[in-house]
Design a protein that fits this description.
single chain, 6-stranded antiparallel barrel, globular, 67% strand
Length: 111
């Protein structure tokens, strides 16, 4: 495997629930750290949303690998941020047999 060029800086965020003081909760995104990635655009699609059609783009994002269970390893349900662009993580798997890199399948939602 030719090593990927991890040149795109991204921010890894995780969802955190916080009590709202009225018996419920609100969701906040907490920054876990910065990672560097290689990004490859996939197929785009249109899907229905509450306010009408919405454009969704799929991405394959390669990051440095960490063992399963390591808190630095991205997980489904987290997201990656590039400025105002958000990439929701759908799945994470090893990109090579040695586990040096992981491949993240993510969706970027465009309103």
């Amino acid at each position: 495997m030719v090593p990927p060029r991890l040149t795109v800086p991204l921010i890894l965020e995780t969802r955190e629930r916080q009590p709202d003081g009225m018996g419920g909760h609100s969701v906040h995104w907490v920054v876990l750290g910065q990672v560097f990635a290689a990004m490859k655009a996939g197929r785009g699609a249109m899907r229905g949303a509450e306010a009408g059609p919405e454009s969704v783009a799929g991405w394959t994002i390669t990051l440095r690998g960490f063992a399963a269970g390591d808190p630095r390893r991205p997980r489904p349900g987290q997201r990656l941020r590039m400025g105002t662009r958000l990439f929701r993580i759908d799945s994470v798997a090893e990109a090579d047999a040695a586990g040096r890199y992981v491949q993240v399948i993510a969706e970027e939602e465009l309103a």
